[in-house]
Amino acid sequence: MDNEKIAQNLTQLADLLEFTGANAFRLRAYRNGARRVKDLTTPIKTMIANGDDLTKLDGIGKGVAEKCVELCETGKLEQMEDLFETVPRSVLDLLNVPKMGPKKAAALFNELNIQDLDQLKAACEEGVVSQLSGFGKKTEQAILDGIAIAVAANKRILWANADQLVKRLGEHMEGCSAIGRIEFAGSYRRGKETVGDLDILVTSNEVEQVMDHFGQFEGITSTIVRGDTKMAVRLEREFQVDLRVVPEESFGAALQYFTGSKDHNVRVRGLAKQQGLKINEWGVYKLDGEDQSLIAGKEEADVYKTLGLPCFAPELREARKEFDWAESNDLPDLISLSDIQGDLHMHTTASDGKNSIQEMADAARSIGLKYIAITDHSKRVTMANGLDGKRLLKQWAEIDAINATATDDFAILKGVECDILEAGGMDIEDEVLAEADWVIASVHYGQNQPLAQITDRIIGAIENPNISMVAHPTGRLLNKREPYEVDLEAVFAAAKRYGTLLELNANPVRLDLNDVYLAAAKEHGIPIVINTDAHRTLGLANMKYGIKQARRGGLQAADVANTKSLKELIRLTGRS
Ligand code: DGT
Ligand code: CA
Ligand code: CA
Ligand code: ZN
């Protein structure tokens, strides 16, 4: 029960209470408590174990503290279980519709008895929703447009969340002595940004024992099937996990098969056939009239090798370019986390971050980075207390002072994440931007504008000689918000022409640019910068998610600007 999970539970409790019309004061207490818990750097669990009084933390009252203790001790909240008796779980799915707050969702449930997304869709189509007070035609249409996203959000989870689940499942499975090798295959292994279900592969001769053990994993809500080699279960929120138990001699073939992708496997099978071979999840076989003999299966690399293929990095197995590259001996040497030298997008307490400049710098040093850029929001982002020119200049003077006291060669670049205004143009005057080492341009407002307008705004920023990089170029939020309309080909052409870099934002909800666009940017010869956009020191650890996506895009270290030394980076951005 980590802080994130506690916060989730508190938020969910508040959401559920909203459906029952509980008083607003209590709801606020749980929501504030959730926010507070999420921001804590010490695990609540540890604090409780130490006998600390949680109510000493501001924003956490007696009620919230009790819930925290209950969660850490029992793993659940009794009040929430009770609420589920009257409010069906499926009602919570309504909250996945973009811009649907708990108040609106509660009104739909209480006044129209809408219990799930299907019923919501039907009600919108019949025009019933727009007749509710506070809803209107426009809202109804927005809800209808958002239902597809909510449905998808319910089906696929973020890679980062799958990764947490993999860690827990891995630990659980380790407790079974009958298991030999274990791998998590499927889209998870390929590093796909969202994962539809998890595919676990283990070797064992004791299938029953392994399946019994798997069935004891906490969080399983039902077993879908249990057969001779395959078992599938459902976890909370309908998420499925498939387990396959295979003999040692087939592990490599099974790993290859269940890693996919399906399209990649279709190509592999075709290539096998051309060579008079047969491949399936049990092995590679040489066909000889009626007979067939097993020639590979134990190791994945051997499976590929017998077909004359390299053991492709899982991230490349999407039937895009990998077979062409293999044929021309041109497979990219994919980037890895240790190639990264710096992080050029992060926030501090000056805007909406949680840590100071010094704290961010120290944290970056401790994970081996050589440089960072501090890039707080500009003034247009009032919600985040964005900085105007005057505050920026003051912050940059502070950065100069901190750099001057450094005893190593670690450097902090003076930066800003400057908004591209709705009407075009930058939020900060050019004279100020010219003083910075590193200027990021971002679209945060006016995301519903038509394609030509957003494209013009971004190209306008690219043409500005003060701008170093465009952040999260499509603005998408996985499972939450579609990308805005933008002509990326035009953006790439402009970026190439003006020497402006493009970001791969490593936040697991963004991963923007995505894999396909990264490959396109690489073809255009545009250097990519992989940044965490950290809002706290812990956020710096998100770099690994960006690396996964970069690998899926076929990027090598040389394609990524922040693998370079500071000196080379500065040369690349044309600043001195
Ligand atoms: P997901 O779960 O939707 O995120 O994506 P995957 O790729 O994990 O797909 P999944 O779980 O349905 O299947 C895992 C792998 O098993 C898949 O990537 C390739 C292999 N596989 C599954 N069904 C088929 C099939 O009908 N033909 C072939 N060739 N391979 C399959
Ligand atoms: Ca899967
Ligand atoms: Ca599966
Ligand atoms: Zn940012």
- What is the residue-averaged pLDDT? 94
Named CATH topology of the largest domain: TIM Barrel
* The top level CATH class name of the largest domain: Alpha Beta
In the predicted model, the low-confidence regions spanning at least 5 consecutive residues are none
Percent strand: 5-15%
Question: What gap, in angstroms, lies between the N and C termini?
Answer: 48 Å
What oligomeric state best describes the polypeptide chains here? single chain
Q: How many DSSP helices?
A: 23
Helix content bin: 40-55%
Radius of gyration: 26 Å
Each distinct ligand:
2'-deoxyguanosine-5'-triphosphate, calcium ion, zinc ion
How many domains, in number, for the residues? Answer: 4
Count the E strands.
Answer: 17
Please state the structural category: alpha/beta
Q: Give the CATH H-level superfamily of the largest domain.
A: Metal-dependent hydrolases
For the record, the CATH architecture of the largest domain stands as Alpha-Beta Barrel
Shape: globular
Please give the order of strands in the largest beta sheet. Answer: 11-12-13-14-15-16-17
Largest sheet: 7 strands, parallel
